[in-house]
Design a protein that fits this description.
By secondary structure, the protein is mainly α. The C terminus is likely disordered. It comes from Linum trigynum.
Length: 242
């Protein structure tokens, strides 16, 4: 390995791994908050985004296994950690949310697992050898492009409501760094299906940061409606003796 190739590997692979693991661990503060308070009040991570990311991480993990493609230890490590963290988040959210949100999260998570199971079964049983990788990669590409819809929707909510309660600046900033790092990794691996969604997500997340800053400086920040609903549901009526 010459010097240029070695430097490229260090930048594109090792740094991507560090940033990727950091991004995978981003929901941990919310998990700890739900664990300690037994409530979803104050949770900054978006439940729909976590469910979509859960599916993407499952597909990435599957794609990285040796019987699908050439074993990629970096992707196995990062997505394995991300799956564990997302699972903990989903479990705690189902445990702590109000009944309606609990059912929605359970159904959405179940559908994600079902879709992953179908993709895994079809790729493993319906194809052999190197033919499995394109099938999984196209499914992964589709899931990543669907994930790109969330920044668009949350940005729309911020613009229409003129509040920043729908997005977390910490999570967005962390996501931008992770997507940039993985974009470099995809370019290093010459993988178009890996690179294109990352490039799109980078642009959308950077637009989200701009929208956030604009609205935060000029908009009015109101309490999180979901947090208020959870608080109302958990209030216990007091019987007054007359």
């Amino acid at each position: 390995m010459d010097r240029e190739t070695a430097l490229t590997f260090v930048f594109a692979a090792i740094i991507s791994t560090i940033v990727g693991v950091a991004n995978a661990l981003a929901p941990i503060p919310d998990v700890k908050k739900m664990w300690s308070s037994n409530s979803t009040i104050g949770v900054t991570s978006s439940p729909p985004q976590r469910v979509i990311n859960f599916l993407v991480h499952l597909l990435f993990f599957w794609h990285s296994l040796p019987f699908i493609t050439n074993s990629d230890g970096l992707l196995v490590l990062i997505n394995g950690v991300a799956i564990l963290v997302d699972t903990a988040y989903i479990y705690m959210y189902i445990r702590c949310a109000n009944p309606t949100r609990r059912v929605i999260m359970a159904v959405a998570s179940g559908l994600s697992v079902l879709l992953f199971t179908i993709v895994a079964a079809v790729s493993l049983l319906g194809f052999k050898g190197h033919h499995r990788e394109p099938v999984v990669m196209w499914c992964l590409f589709t899931a990543q492009m669907v994930a790109c819809l969330w920044p668009i929707y949350s940005g729309y909510l911020v613009i229409t409501t003129q509040t920043v309660n729908h997005i977390s600046l910490f999570e967005i900033s962390n996501g931008v760094l992770a997507e940039l790092a993985w974009l470099c990794y995809g370019i290093y691996r010459h993988n178009t299906l890996f690179t294109v969604p990352r490039a799109v997500m980078c642009v959308l997340l950077m637009l989200q940061v701009m929208i956030y800053e604009s609205v935060a400086n000029h908009g009015v920040n109101i309490p999180n409606p979901q947090a208020l609903r959870d608080m109302i549901v958990r209030v216990t009526p007091v019987n007054e003796d007359v």
